[in-house]
Amino acid sequence: MKLVNKVAVITGGGSGYGEGMATLFAENGATVAVADINLEAATCVADAINKNGGNAFPVEVDVSNNDSMAAMAEATLGHASNGSNRIDIFVNNAGITHKNGPMLGVDEATYDRIFAVNVKSVYLSAMHVVPIFRKQGGGVFLNIASTAGVRPRPGLTWYNSTKGAVITMTKSMAVELAPDKIRVNAINPVAGDTPLLHQFLPGEDTPEIRQKFKDTIPLGRLSLPIDIAKAALFLTSDDGEFLTGVCLEVDGGRCI
User: Fold this and answer.
1) What is the DSSP letter of 190?
2) In angstroms, rounded to a whole number, what is the distance separating the alpha carbons of residues 170 and 246?
3) CA distance 151 to 22
4) How far apart are CA 117 and CA 95, in angstroms?
5) Looking at residue 38, what DSSP letter applies?
6) N or C: which end of the chain has fewer CB within 10 A?
């Protein structure tokens, strides 16, 4: 097991990619804080992990809110089941989008919320977790960005922009934090069958529209949570100990 005695926080852990990472990390020995704005969903994921012999606990968090992020970090440090008073891995996975459509059709409140959840959350994680990493002599951030930040297409302009920001933040954080033995990497998934998929697709979510999107992916399918989880496990474990500033496309060839 690659994450024995590690404590990992995964935001947006109540569904989709976050659930996949939480499950695989726990299977590899990590104690996992399943952090989500939907506490019921986080609890369901944590319960399933624990029933299968893993070690996980739910934490309610709004990743766009400073006080909420601070409370989540403190709750993880103080959780009795791990007893280690540390955080080794922090995954910024929580994210939202606007519906695929014209850029001028997105109202200001929606724009502000997307940037708060997708971009400000990385800033807040740094504010509260970097001091913990420095105190304990190192740690790993993993940011879930998107192929949308590498190969943007019309219809998701403001979402694309948030993911471009996350990619740049990842690289800059990696350089600045390297002397502290803090690694920072990102994964750029292609769209997957997650709760956000219907927002990414133009028009209605139909089998025909899905197939058109799949046809743009050389390997011929959408991403799966396990695809992202396997890449995340590699980047956050000692297997990836000499990798920092990497923004890895897990996209079936979409960005070629």
Assistant:
1) P
2) 8
3) 28
4) 6
5) -
6) C
Which tens digit of pLDDT belongs to each residue from 210-246? 999 999 999 999 999 999 999 999 999 999 999 999 9
List b or e across 105-136, with b for residues whose CB sees 16 or more CB atoms inside 10 angstroms. ebeeeebeebbbbbbbbbebbbebbbebbeee
Location of structure tokens 């804080």: 33
Contact indicator for 223, 189 with CB cutoff of 8 Å: yes
Q: How many residues does the chain have?
A: 256
E-assigned strands of the chain? 7-11, 31-36, 55-60, 89-92, 139-144, 182-189, 247-250
Kindly tell me the burial class for residue 67, based on how many C-beta atoms sit within 10 Å of its own C-beta (0-12, 13-18, 19 or more): exposed
Q: Which residues contact 198 (CB under 8 A, 6 or more apart)?
A: 205
Question: What letter does residue 149 receive in the DSSP assignment?
Answer: G
**From CA 135, how far away is CA 62, in angstroms rounded?**
25
pLDDT at 113 over 70: yes
Q: Is 123 a catalytic residue?
A: no
Q: Where are the domains of the chain?
A: 7-250
Q: What are phi and psi of 185, to 5 degrees?
A: -130, 170
List the beta bridge partners of residue 10. Answer: 34, 91
pLDDT in tens, 133-173: 999 999 999 999 999 999 999 999 999 999 999 999 999 99
Angstrom distances, CA of residue 110 to CA of 106, 156, 218, 253: 7, 13, 33, 31
pTM (global) more than 0.70: yes
How many CB atoms sit inside 10 A of residue 242's CB? 7
Are 32 and 10 within 8 A, CB to CB?
A: yes
| Annotated catalytic residue, options 17, 111, 123, 159 | 159
Given CATH 3.40.50.720, say whether it is the number of domain 7-250: yes
